[in-house]
Structure formats: structure tokens, C-alpha cells
């Protein structure tokens, strides 16, 4: 039973720690961030299992971790407030061609990162951007001025047949 408690505490600690780091930290992992992420299991492994390295302890630890991941995903799927707590919410970085400095500073996003995503979207000027949004997964979505504002997967707006002379 000690192993279940240890792994639960470490899981919650890592989950909160990664959430505090922010969504930007996992959008594009640098080599340093990747190494840090890979070192987490090594750092906490002995804290999770203590000095018992038996197969039974390892399997109990793995089962506990899998149950915690399943329960977390279930809570995220069923409760929007838990999803926002764990995954975060989108953050608007650019509105109508102007940077929102407070949001960019809070999310630790540089103007150059926004410009990089603009270039990928085929835009050269900040004035061409209606919205730049930092998504919960760390990516930056760019919406150009003049693009239709329909939801993904929504049907196209109805055509006005009178304009075609029908």
C-alpha cells in the first residue's frame, strides 16, 4: 500500500509542476527541455519505490501510475473545469494586428515566435493578423484578417441565391 501512496504523491507533484511550467514549455521541446523531461523518472524513481526493487513492487507501481493516468483523463473528459485546470485555456497573443504585451509576457512568448508562425501561415505584416492564439498544447494558431470565422467542422454559410441573379 505504501507504493500506491508514493506513486500517487509523485504523480500529483509532477502533474502540478508541469502545469506550473506553462503550456509553452511543451509546444516545441528544446534539447535542454527534453533532457530535463527525460530525467524526471530517474530523479523520482527511488522516491516512488523506496528500496524495494522487486517485480511485485514494480508492477504495483506501474498499475498505480496507469490508474492515475486513466482517472485523470476521465476527469478531464467529463469536467470542463478539470480540463481547464490541467490543460489550460487558449491565450490571445495578437488581436487585430497588435501584440497583447501582458499576455505575451505572462506566457513567455516572444514576438519572434509569433512572426515565425505568421511566416508559416504566409503572412508578412502583423497588420495581416486578426488573431494569434497560444493553444493549450503550446502551438500558436494564426487567423488572418478576412478569414471566415466559422467553427471547425461547421457547414459553410448558406449561399444567397438572389445575389447570383437566380
Shape: elongated
- The residue-averaged pLDDT reads 78
* Cross-sheet strand order for the largest sheet: 2-1-3-4
Q: Describe the largest sheet.
A: 4 strands, antiparallel
User: What proportion strand?
Assistant: 5-15%
Please identify the structural class as seen in this structure.
Answer: alpha+beta
Distance from N terminus to C terminus (CA atoms, Å) equals 75 Å
Q: What's the total helix number? A: 6
Give the number of DSSP strands.
4
- Helix and strand string, N-terminal first? HHHHEEHHEE
Q: Give the fraction of residues assigned to helices.
A: 40-55%
Our Rg estimate from Cα atoms comes to: 22 Å
Query: Which residues sit in consecutive blocks of at least 5 with pLDDT less than 50?
Result: 158-166
Kindly describe this structure:
This protein is α+β, with helices and mostly antiparallel strands. 53% of the residues lie in helices and 11% in strands. The protein is built from six helices and four strands; from the N terminus they run H-H-H-H-E-E-H-H-E-E. Strands 2-1-3-4 form a four-stranded antiparallel sheet. Strand 1 and strand 2 form a beta hairpin. Helix 1 packs antiparallel against helix 2 and helix 3 crosses helix 4. The radius of gyration is 22 Å and the shape is elongated.
Amino acid at each position: 500500500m505504501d507504493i500506491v501512496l508514493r506513486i500517487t504523491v509523485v504523480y500529483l507533484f509532477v502533474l502540478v509542476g508541469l502545469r506550473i511550467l506553462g503550456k509553452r514549455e511543451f509546444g516545441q521541446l528544446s534539447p535542454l527541455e527534453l533532457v530535463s523531461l527525460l530525467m524526471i523518472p530517474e530523479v523520482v524513481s527511488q522516491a516512488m519505490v523506496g528500496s524495494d526493487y522487486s517485480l511485485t513492487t514494480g508492477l504495483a507501481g506501474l498499475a498505480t501510475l496507469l490508474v492515475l493516468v486513466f482517472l485523470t483523463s476521465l476527469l478531464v473528459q467529463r469536467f470542463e473545469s478539470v480540463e481547464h485546470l490541467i490543460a489550460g485555456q487558449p491565450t490571445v497573443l495578437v488581436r487585430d494586428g497588435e501584440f497583447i504585451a501582458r499576455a505575451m509576457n505572462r506566457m513567455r512568448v516572444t514576438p519572434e515566435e509569433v512572426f515565425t508562425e505568421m511566416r508559416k501561415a504566409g503572412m508578412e505584416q502583423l497588420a495581416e493578423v486578426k488573431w494569434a492564439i497560444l493553444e493549450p498544447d503550446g502551438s500558436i494558431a494564426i487567423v488572418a484578417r478576412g478569414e471566415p470565422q466559422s467553427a471547425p467542422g461547421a457547414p459553410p454559410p448558406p449561399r444567397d441565391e438572389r445575389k447570383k441573379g437566380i
